[in-house]
Design brief:
By secondary structure, the chain is an alpha+beta fold. It has a single domain, classed as Fumarylacetoacetate hydrolase, domain 2, CATH 3.90.850.10. It has 5 helices and 12 strands. α1 packs across α2. The model has no long low-confidence stretch (mean pLDDT 97).
């Protein structure tokens, strides 16, 4: 049976509209590799409005990254609360993000690390709200990747302009819920140093979307793991030397 990316995208979009969560993608529409994942992502992204950024991560410092496009409707730059009822689940991850200051359009020659760093304007503390269009997060990993890599929303904290001196794996991070510490440690991102992730996006992950553009926010993977929280949770993520960001799940 030929792979049907359109059927997968239609199922994911219908779940978003109806809030009838999926047990699985339809037969013949379950991705078998990252190329099929990306085909589904692109079809869904075409229906979700303007691109405003990316999430990117990797299982280890040497692993091939994975990514998903983010949309303007799901990015927030202040502490305005979210309604838990607008999500299926509300998982919380503290992450380090970057905002592009210049375009990196697709080209034949790969972008160097130095070129990528020169194109980044600012670093930001971020909070990702993890969500899913499936009944749970414990299903087929490739299907979850096709589902915008389980993205719900992204809260972007204040900008740090002189970010080049920051070494993210060495940055202490604290995540608190209603003032109580949930996670406190140093580093924590399985991908290790995150600039390689942004470089991979510029050279590979974002190519079919026209590359990276000035103003896009790129969040680079959880430093705290994914923690599910109930309504009534005030969330604060602090990265020493970078800044803090807050939100609330009501």
């Amino acid at each position: 049976m030929a792979f049907d990316a359109a059927a997968a995208a239609a199922a994911l979009l219908q779940a978003r509209r109806t809030r009838i969560w999926l047990e699985a993608l339809p037969e013949g529409a379950r991705p078998a590799d990252m190329e099929e994942v990306q085909a589904i992502q692109a079809l869904v992204a075409a229906e979700l409005g303007p691109l405003a950024g990316w999430k990117v991560g990797a299982a280890s410092p040497d692993a091939e990254p994975g990514c998903a496009p983010l949309h303007a409707q799901n990015l927030r730059f202040d502490a305005t609360p979210f309604r838990a009822a607008d999500f299926n689940i509300t998982g919380i991850e503290a992450e380090i993000g970057y905002r592009m200051g210049a375009d990196l359009p697709p080209r034949d020659a790969p972008y160097s690390r130095e070129e990528v760093m020169a194109a980044i304007a600012t670093m930001h503390p971020t909070i990702e709200i993890v969500d899913t269009r499936f009944v749970s997060l414990g299903l087929d990993p490739l299907s979850h990747s096709a589902d915008q890599t389980s993205h719900g929303a992204l809260v972007v904290g204040p900008a740090l302009a002189y970010w080049q001196r920051i070494d993210p794996p060495a940055v202490p991070v604290r995540l608190t819920f209603n003032g109580e510490v949930a996670v406190e440690h140093t580093g924590g991102n399985s991908a290790g140093e995150p600039i390689r992730l942004v470089q991979w996006l510029a050279n590979t992950g974002a190519r079919r979307y026209g590359g990276l553009k000035a103003g896009m926010v790129i969040t680079t993977g959880s430093c705290t793991g994914n923690i599910l929280v109930p309504p009534g949770t005030r969330v604060r993520a602090e990265f020493q030397g970078v800044g803090s960001v807050e939100t609330e799940i009501q």
